[in-house]
Write a structure and sequence with these properties.
CATH class of the largest domain in chain B: Alpha Beta
Structural class of chain A: alpha+beta
Oligomer: heterotetramer
CATH superfamily of the largest domain in chain B: Type I PLP-dependent aspartate aminotransferase-like (Major domain)
Bound molecules: pyridoxal-5'-phosphate
CATH class of chain A: Alpha Beta
Number of strands of chain A: 3
Structural class of chain B: alpha/beta
Distance between the termini of chain A: 23 Å
Strand order of the largest sheet of chain B: 2-8-7-6-5-3-4
Number of strands of chain B: 12
Distance between the termini of chain B: 31 Å
Largest sheet of chain B: 7 strands, mixed
Helix content of chain A: 25-40%
Shape of chain A: globular
Helix content of chain B: 40-55%
Shape of chain B: globular
Radius of gyration of chain B: 22 Å
Chain lengths: 148, 395, 395, 148
């Protein structure tokens, strides 16, 4: 289908890291079913190195929601938390060879899902973090503005 | 296997329609407004097409105006009735919440121009009642517009009853029959319809041809100004090939209507039975009062677009109520009007069949769909919450 | 011998255009708004057609909107520029007296809505000047609309010069290029055109397809409301076959433009020379600055329709400025604007050639026309008065 | 051509009684060139019987103007003046198997041309006539209303 790039379709058809991590160290969930997109991301963190050793996702949403989730997990797997927090929606879009304009919000959700999972890990481990890691308001309209 | 199950979106042009069009491209290519023989031959074809639509709708040829499609016909119908109403100081219009955007957006434009619009609620089975219309009538109502059959959920509205209520009240009645024309019998006299729109590409005619029926005595206002075509009411050189194809397609669709209905209804019902056997799946719209080819269900816990994409990978062309592609995040206004919660409305699937579909295709759909639904549910955090009891099932 | 010499009214669909259309009826018949592969294949064809028009006009694809024809494109261009003007408090529009009715009638409608319209006079040779436009500009002018080439007399307007005047004044410039597109080079950048309309059936494309070019940043208003097609600016399922045929025809017409021009110009000039050799016959419009296929003459003492009928009896399809068939008794507004007296304007004949016409056909026209003119003059009481000196010859 | 009936086309292609009568007893001319139709009708009258013994016409105008002129001359030829005066545009239209709505004015012109020729004969011969034979105002708009 011409709507999406080959890369998007590949990640949609064969999503990487789908599933749950029963023993996750952090879980982030963003979006809401009303708006048609929910991403839940599970991370496993090595406390010694702060490296994300495993990551999984569950997503309810359109093709690009699934593809951006998949790509985001690939991009943060094996990376230190600090790098994961730097993952921008733009990087996800680029890694997917682009997204249609009306689907950019999915890449924002993926970025937010990663941050939410890291925040959850920090919270659980009582690690302080700054304002810049404040949660997404979870309201789709908020994410309506262009990030990429 | 390839299955085209999106006939409510558009249909393939039939052999009959194509054969009616072909001579108009390079042989009878004159301009019907021209005085000379090549032009008059085209004018004759145009007249024959007009006669045919008139005969099939039980109208007279002067009541038939050709437009560029269903949308234009809808726009012109509403604007004409509104202009007539305004002249009499009547500026209230009644329609429904689940009309096509060609109606809803024109009504919004009319609201900006000073009209008041009442949109009727949609009962859970997707069929509005003549009583609802009667109850909404005001002394300043100039127009009632209710679609013949809904384009998403396929439910058939009680057009004759609504026509009777309107006629009794002396209010013009328009019906958007884009989904019904060629699929359900339409007699504008018997049903007391004053204005009606249809679109050729929904019944194996070509894209880009619509018809506006307007009862004698209802003056049309121009949507497009210019030349004197269509008795001055629709400017622009007539699309003669398209119009001839439209007429041929309509003739055939009307001729074989009962046959197609008898063929499609069991296929539709089998599909409905098979799909609603999937847990937490619901049929949208009344099971009986629906177009013979329409199936529309909601699967809880998944989202329509990914379903469509995976179906497409398996060769199935279908559609979803979700307006994903249009850039909007909102789910179908039709399903919301029907009372489906947002989260459920996102997971809708419309399969619209035509007589070209085979029983084998239905079996194939029933084989692939449960698999895909399970696959997506397994990936869905919403389904996870539903199954683990953290969220209550809505269907 | 059959001679079709009414190519300004409409043309036969070319082989190229037909071949581009055919696959869209029964193979790539999906709805371009659909997400599935059949739909996306149609969307790709639509995108390719858009790219092609953009490239040939030196525009970008987002500046191209497909409509149902030249009339709709004209309507939408004027309404969009007017709406934009109104928002800035600018409600004055400049156009000319010899525009097509798609322009003139839309302007009349806009006048009723509070706009002021200045229609420029037409100089005797049928070419308005940039100076006339400049002189008519007011501080509240929001739009200048001047046709690229006139549909009756074929005269070519100084579009680049007018574009420069408008750009300098910061006023939008629209040109109705329905007669010019495919016949004359058009570069919207070089000519500083902001809005442009064209119609496919004037260059061997199908009837029912138009293009509106609107420069980036000029918001279009809807003429037809509904679905989100054409970026929300033109509702209705796209006529994919027609649009593909239009693009193919335009591509071919642009590709072979110089060749066609070189072929047609001598034929046109021979016809003009032969016809103006008939006594009391005058060419309408400048002899050089005219479309390569356009011949338009007035014969004194006779009336156009009977001339056309007799030509038709001899196999010749032509047209007359006289609007006989439209039910109006008025002669062509174009010829009147050109300064022809009513009695002369009635006796006009337009022969519009295309590359399908042969030199033999020109000879045939030159053989039959003088005979027919004589025959009608012999029957005409007006000619009698002219010849007996009771009335002065006007030409 | 489908615009006109076979009868109209026959009278257009082979108009009867075209020409002038140099020794006409009455000449009627109606319409004007500005409006695109002029009919001139010549009649020869036998003063003993009041019968129109010959009639000719010249017409400038559209196909139906020529055809209605031709038909009108046929309908009055050999008829007494009283009958000619009763010729209605409707009779002309019927004899031609109909005319398109926008061409009905041509049949009115033909009726008027006959009356004008008779009036001219009366004037020349100082025969009195009533108001009902008053001249057409010669302005096309006047004839715009439906006669048939
Ligand atoms: C100059 C001009 N503008 C507009 C039009 C209208 O085009 P269409 O008939 O395709 O709507 C025409 C032709 O009819 C034309 O010649
Ligand atoms: C109910 C209804 N009305 C109007 C339309 C618009 O028709 P078209 O796309 O031919 O303009 C459609 C289809 O798109 C429809 O289903």
């Amino acid at each position: 289908m011409a709507l999406y790039s080959e890369k998007v379709m590949d990640h949609f058809r064969n999503p990487r890291n789908v599933g749950k991590l029963e023993d996750a160290d952090g879980i982030g969930e963003v979006g809401n079913a009303k708006c048609g997109d929910i991403m839940r991301m599970y991370i496993k963190v090595d406390p010694a190195t702060n490296v994300i050793t495993d990551v999984k996702f569950n997503t309810f949403g359109c093709g690009s929601a699934i593809a951006t989730s998949s790509m985001a997990t690939e991009l943060i797997k094996g990376k230190p938390l600090s790098e994961a927090l730097e993952l921008s929606n733009k990087a996800v879009v680029e890694a997917l060879d682009g997204l249609p304009a009306q689907k950019l919000h999915c890449s924002v959700l993926a970025e937010e899902a990663v941050r939410a999972a890291v925040r959850d890990y920090y919270d659980k481990n009582e690690i302080a973090y700054g304002d810049e890691l404040r949660p997404c308001e979870g309201h789709c309209d908020t994410c309506g503005h262009e990030h990429a | 296997m390839n299955v085209y199950a999106d006939n409510a979106a558009t249909t393939a042009v039939s052999k009959t329609a194509l054969e009616a069009m072909l001579p108009c491209f390079q042989e009878v290519y004159g301009n019907p407004s021209s005085l000379h023989s090549p032009g008059q031959r085209a004018a004759e074809k145009l007249a024959a097409a007009r006669d045919l639509f008139a005969r099939r709708l039980n109208a007279s040829p002067r009541e038939i105006t050709f437009t560029s499609g269903g949308s234009e016909a809808d726009n012109q119908a509403l604007r004409s009735a509104a202009a007539l109403g305004a002249r009499k100081g009547k500026k209230h219009i009644i329609s429904t919440k689940f009309e096509h955007h060609a109606i809803l957006h024109t009504l919004s434009a009319l609201e900006k121009e000073g009209f008041t619009v009442t949109l009727l609620d949609i009962p859970p089975e997707g069929v509005v009642t003549a009583e609802q219309v009667r109850a909404a009538l005001r002394t300043d109502t100039c127009l009632v517009s209710v679609m013949f059959a809904n384009n998403e959920i396929g439910t058939i509205q009680p057009i004759g009853e609504i026509g009777a209520v309107c006629r009794e009240a002396g209010v013009l009645f328009h019906t958007d029959a884009v989904q019904a024309a060629g699929h359900l019998p339409i007699d504008v006299e018997a049903l007391q319809i004053d204005l009606l729109s249809l679109s050729a590409h929904k019944f194996h005619g070509p894209k880009g041809v619509g018809v506006l029926y307007a009862r004698k005595g209802i003056p049309l206002v121009n949507v497009i100004y210019g030349g004197a075509q269509e008795r001055g009411k629709r400017a622009g050189t007539e699309n003669v090939p398209g119009i001839c194809g439209a007429a041929a397609a309509f003739d055939e669709a009307c001729e074989k209507m009962a046959e197609h209905q008898a063929y499609l209804t069991p296929l539709r019902d089998k599909l409905i039975a098979g799909l609603t056997a999937i847990p937490h799946t619901v049929l949208n719209g009344d099971a009986q009062r629906r177009l013979p080819g329409n199936v529309n269900v909601c699967f809880e816990g998944i989202e329509g677009e990914s379903l469509l994409l995976l179906l497409d990978d398996r060769g199935v062309a279908a559609s979803s109520g979700s307006a994903c592609t249009s850039g909007s995040l909102d789910p179908s206004h039709v399903l919301l009007a029907l009372g489906r919660p947002h989260e459920v409305a996102h997971g809708s699937l419309r399969l619209s069949l035509c007589e070209y579909n085979t029983p084998e295709e239905i079996d194939y759909l029933l084989a692939v769909l449960p698999e895909i639904v399970s696959y997506l549910r397994n990936m869905s955090p919403v389904w996870d919450e539903l199954e683990t009891g953290r969220r209550p099932h809505l269907i």
